[in-house]
C-alpha cells in the first residue's frame, strides 16, 4: 500500500489529557514510516484544516512528544464547528482540496459525539468522491457522554480533580461549622449528564456524614421541596451541607435551573445552576452559603491527572492510527471494561456513524431513588477511572508544561473565505 | 518553673496548612514535659474554650501528628468570633474560668490580625487578674494581610493553587481561541487586599502574552473604561483575555463591584466581583465569557501544597510554643525575609497588640501604574512562597488525609450559656 500523510485534529472543548492522545497518535504514526509519510496536526481543529493551517509535527522529538502528553489544554488548538449539511458541499469540498493538496490519506479526529458524527460523514464523502481517505475518531470529553465507550478520556482527570476538590472543601467547611448552619455548593460541568457530578461522591469514601451530602444530576428532575427538606435535615444533623450541582440540572418541566443563553454559533451556554441553588437555600432556609464554580479548572488540571485517564487517552490515540492502518475507517477506538476488581480494560472498535448526536446519560441504577444523590454502583463505576497519579515536572512551584514551537506547513491553496 | 498545661486554638478561616502549625505546636509542647503537662486543643476555636470543649491531643502519636500536618481544613475546628469588649467582661471571665479549671498556663492562638489583637487582650487580662498565662499568637491567613510578618502561612499554598489554576485555565482557553474573542475571569479571595490576585501573575512566567493578562486588585480603584479598553486591546491581539479579579475590588467611590441581576421574580440578586466583571465584558464588548470561582478550593488544596508554606506553618507553630516557654507573651512569631536569591527566612518576634485590626495591603510598587496588573516586584516577592511540592499519600486516586479521633476532656464547669 502506498505511503500517504496523516492529519490529526482536535474538536470541541479541550481536556487535561487531550494532548496525550495527540502525542500517542503522532508517535504511532511515526512508527509506521512505510505507510505514513508526514504527520500533520491541524491548528485549531477543522477550521484550521479549512484555513490550511497545518503544523508539521516532525519538530517534536521524543522528549517533546512526552512533554506534550503531559500538558493540559490543546497544544494544536481546537474549535467548536459542526460540518454544515446545508452549504451545498462547500465546506466538504474545501476539506478534500486540503487533503489532496497535502497528500492526506489518514484523518484522525479527536472529539465528542458530534465529532464522531463528522468522522462518519467524512468517510462517506471520501467514498462518494473516490478519494482514498481513512477517517478514524478519538473519543474525548470531560462529560463522559460518548455512546459506545465505557468511559471517555478527559473524564477521569476532571473527575479526580472534582472529587479531590469536594473532599478538601468538605474538610474546610466542616472546620467552620457554627450554630447557624452553612452550605457549600460546587457547580460542575457535564452538559446534560451527571457523570462529573457523580464523581464527586467518591470524596465521601462511603461515609454518609462526609461531603458531598447531596448530588444533583440532570438525569433526576429537580424537586425543589424535596431538595430543601434534605438540605435542612442534613444541616440540622451536621451543622453544614455540601452539595454538588451539575450545570445541566432541570426542573420537572424541563427548564434549566438558570436560563440558558446561546452564543452566536447557536451553542447553548449553561451556567448559573450552582449560584442559583446556593441562593435558593439561603433565601428559603437562611443558611450561610458559599459556592464554587471550578469552570475550566476542572478540565485543565494537569497538576493532578488520573494516571488511568492519561493511559487511556494515550491508548485511544495510538489505536486510532492502528485502526486506520488496518483499513478501518468511519470508526473510533472505544474503551471496554473487562474487569472491576482489579479494574481491567481493553480497546474495542465502535462504528462512528451509529452514535451520531446521541448522549450517554447516567443509567437509572446510578441515581438514588430520591434523585438527590448517586448510588454505590456509580462510585464503583467511576472509582478506577480516577486512580493513579502522574508526576509532572515543576519549575518555580508551578507545573513546567514547556513551550512548543508550531511550524506551519507552506500553504498550497488559495485562501479560504470562511 | 512549675509545669502547666497548654491550650491551642484556631480562629477564623482555615487553610491548607493550618494543621501543620497545630501539629508543630503540639510536637514542640510535647518536647518540653518538664514545663508543659497536657496539650489541649480547643474544639472550634474560642467558642470551644467557652463551651469547655477541649480535646486531649495525647491520642495523636508521632505518625498521626505527621498526618495531621498534611491535612487541609482545621481538624480541631475553628470559628469566627471576636472577643467582645462591651459585655462587662463576661466572656473574658469565662475564658479564665476554663483556663483555671484545666490548669492552662500557655495559650497558643492561631489566626489573623483580629486574633493577634485577642492575644494582646488576653495577655492584658491575665496580668490584671494575676493569672499566670502566657498567650502567644500563630499567624495564619490565605489573605497574607497580617501586619508585621513578611508573609502568612496559608498564603503560599493558596497562591500556588491559584497560580497553577490560572496557568492551566490559560492553556485551555488559548486552545479554544476563535474569531469572536473570549474572556476568562477567575475570582480569588483576599478580602481587602490583592495578594492572592497578585500571585496568579506568576502563571505568566514573565511572558506578556500568557495568562493572566489583567489582574484587578482592591488596592487600585476599578476604572471601568480603562479596564474595558485594556481587555479589548488584549483580545484583539491574542483572541482571548484571562483576568484575575480579587473579591474585594472597588469602584473609585469605594463601592464594591458586585453583580446585580434580577431573578425571575424580579428580585435583585447580588453576586461576586468575578461574575460581575465577566458579564460586564460580555455586555460591553460582546465576547464569549466564562468565569471561575474557586472559593474554598483555593484555601483547602492539600493535594498541591507549597513546601515553603508548609515549612513556615510548622515553624511558626513550633516557635509560638518556644516563645511562650521563654516567657514571651502578647506576641507572635513573624516570618522575616533575609535573602531573595536564594530565598532565606527566619523567625522573629512581633508584638501582638501593636497590629490590632490593621491590614497589610499590597505596596504601591507591587501594582502597575495603570492599576490593571501587578509588577515584577510583586512576582519576585511571591515566587519563593509557592515553591516546592509536598508528597501526599493517596488512596483510590484521592489524597488520603486520614481520620482523627478527637477525645474530649471531661468538663469541670457548669455549661456556658453562650
From TrEMBL, chains A, B:
GO molecular function: 6-phosphofructokinase activity; diphosphate-fructose-6-phosphate 1-phosphotransferase activity; metal ion binding
Cellular component annotations (GO), alphabetically ordered: cytoplasm
Keyword Repressor: no
Pathway: Carbohydrate degradation; glycolysis; D-glyceraldehyde 3-phosphate and glycerone phosphate from D-glucose: step 3/4
Residues that hold Mg(2+) according to the record: 113
Reactions catalysed according to its record: beta-D-fructose 6-phosphate + diphosphate = beta-D-fructose 1,6-bisphosphate + phosphate + H(+)
Active-site residues annotated for this sequence: 143 (proton acceptor)
GO BP of this protein: fructose 6-phosphate metabolic process
Locations listed in the record: Cytoplasm
E.C. number: 2.7.1.90
Pfam families named in the record: PFK
All copies of domain Phosphofructokinase, residue ranges: 8-323
SUPFAM superfamilies according to UniProt: Phosphofructokinase (SSF53784)
InterPro entries, sorted: ATP_PFK, PFKA, Phosphofructokinase_dom, PKF_sf, PPi-PFK
Keywords, sorted A to Z: Cytoplasm, Glycolysis, Kinase, Magnesium, Metal-binding, Transferase
Organism superkingdom: Bacteria
Signal peptide: none
Regulation: Non-allosteric.
Family: Belongs to the phosphofructokinase type A (PFKA) family. PPi-dependent PFK group II subfamily. Clade 'B2' sub-subfamily.
Entry function: Catalyzes the phosphorylation of D-fructose 6-phosphate, the first committing step of glycolysis. Uses inorganic phosphate (PPi) as phosphoryl donor instead of ATP like common ATP-dependent phosphofructokinases (ATP-PFKs), which renders the reaction reversible, and can thus function both in glycolysis and gluconeogenesis. Consistently, PPi-PFK can replace the enzymes of both the forward (ATP-PFK) and reverse (fructose-bisphosphatase (FBPase)) reactions.
Oligomer status and interactors: Homodimer.
NCBIfam families noted in UniProt: PRK14072.1 (NF010675)
Designated name of the protein: Pyrophosphate--fructose 6-phosphate 1-phosphotransferase
Natural source organism: Thauera linaloolentis (strain DSM 12138 / JCM 21573 / CCUG 41526 / CIP 105981 / IAM 15112 / NBRC 102519 / 47Lol)
Primary gene name: pfp
